[in-house]
């Protein structure tokens, strides 16, 4: 690394020939996509549930419970999940990592979706009911289309959180299964090697792409809002 | 009647999540803190926590977290202030936030290269004649990298509160003859104290529980509460003691949060 001679793509070549690393990258992507998908579904249901709660106190309790996993440090989340999975007899590996990622992504999705729901006028639902829509129709034809931008924002947030997570995964990953950040950690502890640099560059680019997508989604939301006001 | 039924259907998975992954883990941590390493029910962990070894560790952890929070505040406040004065503030803000989207490990890893024995910093020090120094694995490198990592989280809330500040208030203070310093002390700072508070919250608690940086950057010289928990859970397998430290960390977290005022009241 410190004897610079010329530019080379050798490290990228080495990276793509390392099948073990590629499997880890795939694992990470599968975990991130699955966990953000599941957490988006549960989170949206949860947000609707919170929205429908009428009592102020119950609502606040639910919201503070929702925020517990956001404010508590990763180490505590990781350690307590480790205890939980061991008590439940779940073998540490793919499923424990997936479950914990789903668990800490749900509150983020709820926080992204809830403001959208609050914006929605309750008369919309009443109107739909008056016009004879059943419960399922109200959900699929009225509520979900209205909060779609929030759902997408929540999904992408969950995706980045899941991709980024190191601490929680580190606790619940067990022996056989690793994700990228855990792998980078164990490589970095051994010192610097240039294929991590190549890998970092790729990860960086991937994150930037995600951020740009996220940015455009929120941008479009804002525009849609302004348009809505104009009407 | 029907309405209640629908609500329950929506509520089921979410309530299940709250019960399983929010309440149960905290209770389990509390439960485990009453077991010693052999699995007997005892209060030995709590006794151990109040021995000088653990108290010293807690204090030093506090000290580091305090330093990190203070330095990030000192750097972040003027930066946020300047940001509100720039022309393209959203763009500048975005540029400052981008690093926070990059994986924490990659940033730590980058500093391994920058601060390393043959890294850029040392080559620079050689060129200007100071000679190479041991930078990595010192308190300095730990605090520097932590501050670097936490600064965006400090800038964001401060920027938001400064941005909401009504500029006419500053004009009014000027008109009434306040000096720049008085304006800052009496008008700007009190009105942005909420931003400062929430910034401190987002920095202090994570700084207390850092564990990966202490390994990679500080070379195990700095032991924070987070490192201690990780050590007890994954290295010495003394889950009871680890849980006890976690219980204290949770208590400290709640104390600190109630002390600095409630963050975002609901939505």
TrEMBL record, chain B:
One of its GO terms (cellular component) is plasma membrane. Residues 58-260 form the ABC transmembrane type-1 domain. One of its GO terms (biological process) is transmembrane transport. Its main location: membrane. PANTHER family: INNER MEMBRANE ABC TRANSPORTER PERMEASE PROTEIN YDCU-RELATED, INNER MEMBRANE ABC TRANSPORTER PERMEASE PROTEIN YDCU-RELATED-RELATED. Belongs to the binding-protein-dependent transport system permease family. CysTW subfamily. This is ABC transporter permease.
């Amino acid at each position: 690394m410190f004897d610079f001679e010329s530019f080379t793509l050798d490290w990228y070549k080495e990276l793509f020939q390392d099948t073990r690393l590629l499997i880890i990258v795939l694992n990470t992507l599968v975990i991130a996509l699955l966990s953000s998908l599941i957490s988006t579904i549960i989170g949206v249901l949860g947000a609707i549930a919170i929205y429908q709660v009428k009592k102020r106190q119950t609502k606040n309790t639910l919201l503070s419970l929702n925020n517990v996993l956001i404010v508590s440090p990763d180490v505590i989340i990781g350690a307590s999940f480790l205890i939980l999975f061991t008590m439940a007899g779940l073998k540490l590996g793919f499923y424990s990592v997936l479950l914990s990622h789903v668990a800490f992504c749900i509150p983020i999705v709820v926080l992204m979706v809830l403001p959208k729901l609050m914006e929605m006028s309750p008369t919309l639902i009443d109107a739909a009911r008056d016009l004879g829509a059943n419960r399922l129709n109200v959900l699929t034809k009225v509520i979900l289309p209205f909060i779609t931008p929030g759902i997408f924002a929540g999904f992408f947030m969950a995706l980045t959180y899941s991709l980024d997570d190191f601490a929680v995964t580190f606790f619940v990953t067990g022996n056989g299964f690793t994700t990228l950040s855990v792998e980078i950690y164990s490589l970095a502890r051994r010192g610097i090697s240039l294929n991590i640099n190549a890998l970092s560059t790729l990860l960086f680019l991937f994150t930037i792409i995600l951020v740009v997508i996220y940015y455009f989604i929120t941008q479009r939301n804002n525009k849609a809002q302004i348009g809505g006001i104009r009407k | 009647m029907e309405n209640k039924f629908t609500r329950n259907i929506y509520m089921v998975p979410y309530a299940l999540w709250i019960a399983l992954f929010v309440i149960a883990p905290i209770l389990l941590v509390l439960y485990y803190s009453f077991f010693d390493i052999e699995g007997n029910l005892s209060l030995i962990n709590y006794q151990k926590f109040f021995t000088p070894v653990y108290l010293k560790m807690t204090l030093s952890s506090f000290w580091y977290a305090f330093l990190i929070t203070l330095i990030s505040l000192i750097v972040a406040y003027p930066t946020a202030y300047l940001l509100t004065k720039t022309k393209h503030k959203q763009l500048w803000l975005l540029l400052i936030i981008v690093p926070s989207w990059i994986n924490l490990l990659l940033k730590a890893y980058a500093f391994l290269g920058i601060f390393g024995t043959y890294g850029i910093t040392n080559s620079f020090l050689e060129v200007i004649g100071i000679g190479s120094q041991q930078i990595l694995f010192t308190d300095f490198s730990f605090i520097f990298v932590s501050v670097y990592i936490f600064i965006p989280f400090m800038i964001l809330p401060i920027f938001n509160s400064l941005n909401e500040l009504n500029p006419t208030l500053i004009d009014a203070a000027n008109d009434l003859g306040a000096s720049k310093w008085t304006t800052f002390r009496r008008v700007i700072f009190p009105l942005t104290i909420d931003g400062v508070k929430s910034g401190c919250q987002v920095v202090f608690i994570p700084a207390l529980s850092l564990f990966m940086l202490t390994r990679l950057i500080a070379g195990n010289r700095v032991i924070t509460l987070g490192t201690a928990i990780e050590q007890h859970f994954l290295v010495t397998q003394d889950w009871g003691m680890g849980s006890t430290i976690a219980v204290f960390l949770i208590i400290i977290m709640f104390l600190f949060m109630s002390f600095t005022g409630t963050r975002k009241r609901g939505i």
